[in-house]
Amino acid sequence: MAELLAWLKERAKGDLLLWADQLSAANRFKVSVRDVENAALENGLLPARYQRNRNMFCLDDQLKLFKSKVAVIGCGGLGGYIIEELARLGVGTIVAVDPDVFEEHNMNRQLLATPDFLGIKKVAAAARRVDRVNPAVELLPVGLAFGMDNGKRILEGCHVAVDALDSIAVRLELAEICQEESIPLVHGAIAGWYGYLMTQYPGERSLQKFFAHNSQESGLEKHLGNPSFTPAVVASLEVAEVCKILLNQGTPTRRRCLSIDLYDMEFVEIEC
Amino acid sequence: MKITVKLFAGFRENRFKVAERELADGCTIAGVLSDLGISEPELGVALINGRHVTLDQVLSDGETVSLFPKVGGG
Fold first, then answer.
1. Do B45 and A270 touch (CB under 8 A)?
2. What fold, for B2-69?
3. Domain ranges of chain B
């Protein structure tokens, strides 16, 4: 380890560790690029891929992101973008949960849905994508339907859970498990031009209140479907919330719900 | 009684953004939905003067009702 560190420090440009050197170090010292990233961040070196983050996040913040584990429940419209953005942000461990395979009707909006991935498990595609985007990030694929039976196990050790589900009933199960396990939950939902965003900490029940009646029915999405842009917008808002929660910065959308209307371009806060 | 109704997101389609409605005294949120042709499962959240209320909440003259549709896609 001391040898690796000395080598990294010698190669660093200022406090930046270039990708080529990160890769060389992994080969030379027979460790993973993930191990190299960990060693770099713990010793004051910033992998150069994060240099445009640094005026927003200090090195300790970047290390905190790397040490974080975030569960993304659902790998469709929202989930695809959420996973992409978490991986680029440098969140070290992502648990991706979805039982489905890609189908043709996913390709109008789902980031990971490409012709070569048709018929492929969504979580397998997510793992391949993250490996290409940021190999220092570990994606743990869970190809199961999330529910009360397996939720606790899936969320084990996670610092935040991100709702990218397409079922209100399962969302409420996710909210219950997050409550029991004391995990903050970022809720997002979309339909057509519209969406909602809400963050809920343990002890808060905004989401349960929001869906207090008729939780078994689906919403507006059933007849509106979803275009390419709405998932990208709401997913990005969710990742911003995750980032703030992990770093304990800024003001999350707590005890309020943001209603997003891209048709009339209106963002309205609902008190919860 | 006169009630101001504000509609949000998809509820505006073929309806309006904001309108004054004349409703019978004792009318509830459920009554407003039925007046607008919105079925109860379509509703996400109802607010009276910005406060979260349930479907059986009785309205008073001059109040403002805001209705948000239920959205569950991902």
1. yes
2. Ubiquitin-like (UB roll) (3.10.20)
3. 2-69
ipTM greater than 0.90: yes
Q: What is the largest CA-CA distance in chain B?
A: 40
C-alpha span between B20 and A93 (Å, rounded)? 52
B6 CB within 8 Å of a chain A CB? no
Collect all residues of chain B within an 8 Å Cβ-Cβ radius of residue A171. Answer: 72
| Domain boundaries of chain A, sorted by first residue | 2-56, 68-271
Amino acid at B33: L
> How is the beta sheet containing A194-200 ordered, strand by strand?
A138-142, A93-97, A69-73, A160-163, A185-191, A194-200, A256-261, A266-271
Identify all chain A residues contacting B69, using CB atoms and an 8 Å cutoff.
Answer: 191, 194, 219-220
Q: What whole-number distance in Å separates Cα of residue A216 and Cα of residue A206?
A: 17
Strands ordered across the beta sheet of B2-7: B18-22, B2-7, B64-69, B43-48, B51-53
Residue with the two structure tokens 């084990």: A156
Q: How far away is chain A from the Cα of B29, in angstroms, using its nearest Cα?
A: 13
CATH no. for A68-271: 3.40.50.720
Q: Chain A residues with CB inside 8 Å of B42's CB?
A: 219-220
At A2-18, the pLDDT tens digits run 999 999 999 999 999 99
pLDDT in tens, chain B (74 residues): 999 999 999 999 999 999 999 999 999 999 999 999 999 999 999 999 999 999 999 999 999 999 999 999 99
Helix (H) or strand (E) holding A235: helix A229-247
